[in-house]
Amino acid sequence: MANLITGCRILCSIIMIFFPAFSVTFYVLYLAGGVTDMVDGLVARKTNTVSKMGSRLDSIADVFFVAVSLFKILPAVDISTWLWIWIAVIAAIKVINILSGFLSQKRFVAEHTIMNKVTGFLLFLLPLTLTVIELNYSGAVVCYIATFAAIQEGHYIRTGKEVE
């Protein structure tokens, strides 16, 4: 059942390609994709059906959903240079975290901290707020929290502290 829900996120992503960003249909598909992301893992845990294949499928669905969302949204918004620079700095910190984790632990390390989850949720909400909150303001809030989350994640990786 959980894998079917994850498959729905992939289907929503594919269909989103054919609709203009910020149209009603786009928003419905975007919300459906986000809900499936929140629900599939919960269903897998509650039904004792967590599997490696399901986890991989979830990761593939996440990448596909984010890629399609960015493909549709980025051309439709005007992002200030300072915000692009801040996003690049966050991305650089995340890459350093990945490399640091791999070098120190000889495996891919991704910390599922509360702040990383808050960042992901705010990033998901961001396109839904663009008609009521100017991107420079909402983007700054998301970038501030994402910066903190990335630095915190790096600290956990480099100190070997386990996330509870």
Question: How would you describe the overall organization of this protein?
Answer:
- The chain has helices spanning 2-16, 24-46, 52-73, 81-105, 114-129, 135-159.
- Helix 1 (2-16) runs parallel beside helix 3 (52-73) and helix 2 packs antiparallel against helix 3.
- It is flat.
- It has 164 residues and is mainly alpha-helical.
- The model has no long low-confidence stretch (mean pLDDT 90).
- The protein contains six helices and no strands.
- The protein is 77% helix and 0% strand.
| Unreliable residue runs | none
- What is the arithmetic mean of pLDDT? 90
Specify the helix fraction band. over 70%
- Secondary structure category: mainly alpha
Distance between the termini: 28 Å
Main sheet: strands, sense, barrel: none
Assign an overall shape: flat
Please report the total strand number as a whole number.
0
What letter string, H or E per element, gives the SSE order? Answer: HHHHHH
Strand content: under 5%
Separate helix tally: 6
Q: How large, in whole angstroms, is the Cα Rg?
A: 17 Å
